[in-house]
Write a structure and sequence with these properties.
mainly beta, Jelly Rolls, Immunoglobulin-like, 3 domains, nine-stranded antiparallel sheet, six-stranded antiparallel sheet, 49% strand
Length: 373
């Protein structure tokens, strides 16, 4: 991400996405294995430019639900991250998005909401696809010069005031682009220059981005895959330590054949729109978490995690006063008087570094020491 940060301010082409009711197109002979998902739900993938507000505009995650990217008049606003696509494999990029004009009465024909992929942060080479707020689309390849991949045209299925579903599908040596299940163009695949993923909002545009996801495509005739599990901020090799008595495990599960069962430590866990979440009670010491998914073809994916619950560190309450009672008794009933007990009590008082001292002197020589913290 270092090179990304250095060149971030001069990137001017990029991205769009958001929400909607339409479904993605399906390929009957291929299955999707989801490799990377950004849901903008608080588990972000280190987007440069996020949580930034300046003269160019603003970018933020709203209610742990979607990303809002807004550009001021005469400026563009960018967020960027990296994902290393395996160019030897067939893949798809999915995203949901909404594009809104800040002033609906004006026509922003030249202002684009753009998604760029394969971006090089050294020479800015990239592929990108952009939309106006009225649904005009254009796709380009940039490598020293600009080459049109999809010439500007109106998309009939464009949802002007709602969310749109974009799919960029690379199979063999060809890209096919779909919007709301309708094919809107195709062009030849060329090697990607880098790993960058970039969204750009053009002048006076706002983009609400619901998600961006990346999947690799597998030929179902060649092999069928077990359920795919993606965990939030966890890995199999990691040993997790916590002082909490519960542990939250969450993530995504996908399977083209359909899910038969999904359990954590033998208990059924509901899956909602590919998402799952469960809070597990922990005993002190080592806890083994078993996650198991079985699809309708009885293929199994089993994962194990180790969570260690440790004793909480001692915490001192400094908002309350603490009292110390120091007693120096020099006269016991059946012994001779003692000489050093009072001095010992006074030394203890000094050791405790009291701020307020009250003395009670009686037959038993008591000293009461009050500590103010």
């Amino acid at each position: 991400m270092t090179k990304l940060a250095i060149t971030f301010s001069i990137l001017i082409y990029c991205a769009l996405l958001g929400k909607l009711s339409a479904q993605e197109p399906r390929h009957s002979s291929y299955s999707r294995n989801w490799e990377w998902m950004e849901e903008f739900d608080g588990n972000g993938h280190n987007w440069l430019g996020m949580d930034l507000t300046d003269n160019n505009g603003s970018a933020s995650i709203v209610n742990d639900a979607y990303c809002k990217l807004r550009a001021a008049e005469g400026h563009s606003m960018i967020i960027a991250t990296e994902y290393p696509l395996d160019q030897k494999r067939d893949f798809e990029i999915h995203c949901k998005f909404q594009v809104l004009a800040d002033n609906p009465d004006l026509d922003y024909k030249s202002s684009l909401a753009t998604l760029s992929w394969g971006v090089s942060f050294e020479n800015h080479s990239q592929h990108n696809i952009g939309f106006t707020s009225n649904g005009l689309v254009i796709a380009r390849a940039i490598s020293g010069s600009v080459k049109e991949l999809i010439r500007p045209k109106q998309v009939e299925s464009w949802q002007k005031k709602s969310y749109n579903y974009l799919v960029i599908s690379k199979i063999n040596d060809e890209y096919k682009v779909y919007l709301n299940q309708d094919a809107i163009g195709s062009f030849n695949f060329n090697p990607l220059a880098g790993n960058g993923l970039v969204f750009t909002a053009g002048s006076n545009l706002s983009i609400n981005i619901d998600f961006i996801r990346i999947a690799y495509l597998e030929d179902q005739l060649a092999k069928s895959q077990p359920p795919r599990l993606i965990f939030d901020n966890m890995s199999d090799e990691e040993i997790i330590q916590t002082e909490n008595d519960f542990f939250k495990i969450s993530g995504f599960i996908t399977d083209e054949d359909g899910l038969k069962s999904f359990t954590i430590n033998g208990n059924n866990v509901p899956v909602d729109k590919s998402k799952f979440s469960a809070n597990l009670p922990l005993a002190f010491g080592k806890n083994i978490i078993k996650v198991e998914a079985i699809d309708l073809t009885n293929q199994v994916n089993t994962r194990y995690f180790e969570v260690v619950r440790v004793q909480p560190k001692a915490q001192f309450i400094t908002s309350q006063k603490r009292l110390a009672l120091v007693i120096g008794n020099s006269r016991y009933k059946h012994t001779a008087p003692l000489k050093n007990t009072i001095n010992d009590a006074r030394e203890m008082k000094n050791t405790l570094r009291v701020s307020k001292v009250s003395y009670c002197v009686g037959g038993t020589r008591l000293e009461l020491v009050t500590l103010s913290v």
